[in-house]
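Z., the sequence and structure:
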Amino acid sequence: MTQGARMTISQDARLTTDRLFGPGGPVLQPAGDYRDGMDLTRLAPQTGTAFLLRAGQRLTVIDPTGEQVSDFFAVMADDRDEWLSSGRTIDYANSTAVTTGRVLYSNRSRPMATVVEDTCGHHDLLLTPCSQQTFDLLYPEFEGAYHPSCFENLATNMADFGVDPDRISTTLNIFMNVWAERDGELHIDPPTSTAGDRFVLRAEADLVVGLTACSAEKSNNGVCKPIDYRIDD
């Protein structure tokens, strides 16, 4: 770590309980010294957090090891019924791509955040956060066993800010590599992010933000890894 940089570990308290994590393999440690003196908070694998992001502040999300997705969701701080709309964001950009210069819109068509830096270039606005039902339906090898999920992590942490779980819809899946065939069939390939890739959003309004280190093994090339983030004024 660069001299003067500081790392905070954001550890979900539920990790002290008996949880099943699936066959994700070992947790990988960050490769190299990518932090450039930044003070960062680390989300442990398969966990999440929530926080207030004020208008004008910047949220930097970093993949410290490579090939790890982070689910982002937000609601307006002054009205929990106004939330990130992937549909309106796609509609107004006439594109499913999310990269530098793109604006994230709410269900009421208000700008919520603008992408100001993106070193990866592959992110997803089509798929919902993984949930227990995701693993029950799409991971038959788990045989219905409990599995941590992005939806659980978002709902649990955003509840502290008065966000009802039913308000959590399609997320911005940072670093997720999703593409479509001409017939519409979707593919989830390993993320193209490498260690140190970053995605930076500037809040255009006061937001309640939920953020995860994605829990779905198939979205993260088989291994669930940490996510780093920081907030700047």
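The first strand starts at residue 7 and ends at 10. Residues 1-32 have pLDDT under 50 and may be disordered.

Let me know what you think.
H.
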